[in-house]
Structures are given as C-alpha cells and as structure tokens.
C-alpha cells in the first residue's frame, strides 16, 4: 500500500460575495412578498456572506460542472497540468442534471484527455466520498495521483421561480398561501462554490497533508429522510419519487426543490454525529489529545455550541482552541465546505510539521457521517 498525501488544495467561489440584505434580491421574492422566515434563519445560522453563481442582472454565470472545473484548474501550474490527472472524482448534492454524471460533465469542460472518473451521489458526504475514492485509488497503486472535488450550485434550486407554481396552486386552495418552512429554510442556508484537492503518492510541496485514515457511517437503517429533493415525504416517513407523480404535479409541489425536515435535523444530527465520531476514534485509537485542528462541517452556527456540548456529554470533548471554521464568510457550501475549510487552514500559515487534523462531515439527508485524519508533513 502507498502513502497518500494531499499536496494541493484550491477553491473557486463565483462572483462577488453576497451579504444578508441582498440575498432575496438575488434569489427573488416569492408571490411578491418578502420572506418572514429569512431573518429567523439568518439570525440562527449567523452567516454574514456567501456566493451565488448569479450576476447582478439575475443571469446564471456558472453551472455546477463549470464551478468544479474552475476549482480543478486552480490546482494546475507548470509542475502539474490538467493533462497529468489520472483520476477525477467529484461529489455534489446539486448536479446540473440526472444524466450524464456530474464528473462526466466536469471532465467535458476540462477537455484533458482520457482518464478514470467517479461520481459519488449524496449530500455533504459526497465530497468526502469523492476524496475517499481518490485516497483508496492512490493507496492501492491503481493511480499515482487523483483530483477530488466537492461542489454545489444550489442557488438555481432556490430561486423564486422554482416555487411560483406551487404558490399559485396553493392560492386556488386557500386565500393566503404560505410556502412550507421545510422548503424555505434551505433558501437562506445554502450557497455556491467548489473546492478541489490533488492527491499524490509523494509529499510534494509545502505542508503536504498525509491521509492517515478515512471512515464513514450511515444511520439510514434507523432514521427516516431528513433532507431531500426530487420527491415528497409522506406521512409514514417514506419518500414518493418525482417519477411516480404526473408531470403536471411536479411544479405544483415544487418536487425538485431541496427540503429539510427541521424537527428531525435538530433532534438527531448532533447525537448521531458524535456517536459515529466515537466509533471512528475508537477504531483508530485516537482521542481529542491527538487532534491539533478540528474541522467540523456545520450548516449553521446554531449547532456550534450544541455540538460542543454533545461532544462533552458523550465523553469526547474537543477544546475550543482546536476548532477551525469559516462558515461565516463563505456560507454553507454543502459538499464543498470541508474543502474550503481545509484550503483556508492550509493557506493560513498556522500549520507546522506533525500537526494532526480531524475532518468531521455530517450529512442530514438520511444521517451519514464521514471522517478523515491528516498529518502535516
């Protein structure tokens, strides 16, 4: 088995940052009324700015595959060209289409010759699963290098026109229709961007990060769906797929909008997350004393204090001085968030040889968690 190192990390954030006051202007007003939920959600998530692939005139500037390709190209220089990539593995929860796969579309924009591609599906963990596929491929010697990416282009899923048919339909049933909070919640939570990592079997460059191990856990066997798109959640907790509805109903129910069962989220995301972290640490014989930087992907600062308390409650307290977050300034970019955090930490000048970094990525879709443990070389 080969050792595997993250030798470069890059990001691409589209256009200028958008502050809280301009979000609704970018995404659009639903049914001519300003959102009442927006201030509540923003007050809790405490995100100050984010990025959208939308210009000042409301036009889309990049699709998801273009964002990802741009991040990948940022990895390239005179020493490593895009033609040198042996494996391309990209994860996202907001692909531009059902088929072809997301990574196939990224490869189409890169136009860099024949190579292996991999497209893990899912939500936030898809970026980590993309990384794990690259990690295993380099470790087993199948390839000498791999480029892995996480990205989101959720703004187009959250624009007002996605919901207008549903609101119009509701008006035929009630005088003052209100879009369900489970749909509007995510409008004020998610943003666009991409991150990419170059994995190699040698520790090239400054502050190369050796991947010591990666672990993943799913609680779908006992938990019902929490975040979803392309279906409707039924009273029994099951999902009814978009393909089982008549086409004329797709707009009436905004079936392709992302939705969140906030009750399930608050009750379970942290409990299951810490439980899985304990399993990962026990399996690999580490504890908080073996961590210098803790990078948890949290969707909202609402969960920051609560995660700390849950860690403490379950006997794996992570001191505040070990935490590193950048949610406030880049927003919740789903599958790309952990890439953006690690890119910022690596470029901060804080890291020194021997430092240990723990990546902790939850996914609320049906409660999955992925971890990576890194050493600075």
Automatic annotation (TrEMBL):
Residues 281-359 form the Beta-ketoacyl-[acyl-carrier-protein] synthase III C-terminal domain. GO terms for biological process: secondary metabolite biosynthetic process. GO terms for molecular function: acyltransferase activity. Residues 120-202 form the Beta-ketoacyl synthase-like N-terminal domain. The keyword Lipid metabolism does not apply. Keywords: Acyltransferase, Transferase. CDD domains: init_cond_enzymes. It holds the Pfam family ketoacyl-synt. The keyword Nucleotide-binding does not apply. Gene3D superfamilies: 3.40.47.10. InterPro entries: ACP_syn_III_C (IPR013747), Ketoacyl_synth_N (IPR014030), Thiolase-like (IPR016039). This is StlD/DarB family beta-ketosynthase. The lineage of its organism: Bacteria, Pseudomonadati, Bacteroidota, Flavobacteriia, Flavobacteriales.
């Amino acid at each position: 088995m080969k050792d595997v190192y993250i030798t470069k990390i890059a990001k691409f954030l589209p256009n200028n940052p958008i502050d809280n006051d301009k979000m609704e202007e970018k995404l659009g007003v639903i049914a001519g009324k300003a959102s009442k939920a927006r201030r509540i959600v923003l007050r809790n998530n405490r995100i100050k700015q984010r990025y959208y692939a939308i210009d000042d005139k409301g036009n889309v500037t990049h699709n998801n595959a273009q964002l990802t390709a741009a991040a990948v190209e940022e990895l390239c220089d005179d020493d490593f060209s895009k033609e040198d990539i042996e494996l391309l593995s990209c994860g996202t929860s907001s692909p531009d289409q059902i088929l072809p796969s997301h990574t196939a579309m990224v490869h189409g924009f890169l136009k860099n010759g024949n190579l292996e591609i991999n497209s893990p599906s899912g939500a936030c963990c898809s970026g980590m699963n993309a990384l794990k596929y690259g990690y295993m491929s380099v470790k087993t010697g199948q390839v000498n290098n791999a480029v892995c990416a996480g990205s989101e282009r959720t703004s187009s899923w959250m624009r007002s026109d996605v919901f207008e048919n549903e609101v119009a339909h509701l008006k035929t049933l009630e005088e003052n229709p209100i879009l369900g909070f489970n749909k509007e919640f995510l409008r004020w939570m998610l943003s666009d961007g991409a991150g990419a990592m170059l994995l190699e079997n040698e520790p090239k460059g400054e502050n190369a990060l050796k991947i010591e191990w990666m672990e993943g856990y799913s609680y779908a066997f006992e938990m019902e769906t929490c975040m979803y798109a392309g279906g409707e959640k039924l009273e029994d907790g099951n999902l009814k797929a978009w393909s089982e509805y008549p086409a004329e109903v797709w707009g009436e129910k905004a079936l392709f909008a992302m939705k969140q069962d906030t009750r399930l989220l608050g009750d379970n995301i942290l409990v299951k997350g810490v439980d899985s972290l304990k399993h990962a640490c026990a399996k690999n014989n580490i504890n908080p004393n073996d961590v210098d930087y803790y990078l948890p992907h949290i969707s909202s600062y609402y969960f920051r204090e609560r995660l700390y308390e849950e860690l403490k409650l379950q006997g794996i307290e992570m001191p505040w001085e070990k935490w590193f977050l950048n949610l406030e300034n880049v927003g919740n970019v789903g599958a790309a968030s952990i890439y953006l955090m690690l890119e910022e930490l690596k470029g901060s000048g804080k890291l020194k040889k021997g430092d240990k970094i723990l990546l902790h990525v939850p996914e609320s879709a049906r409660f999955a968690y992925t971890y990576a443990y890194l050493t600075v070389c």
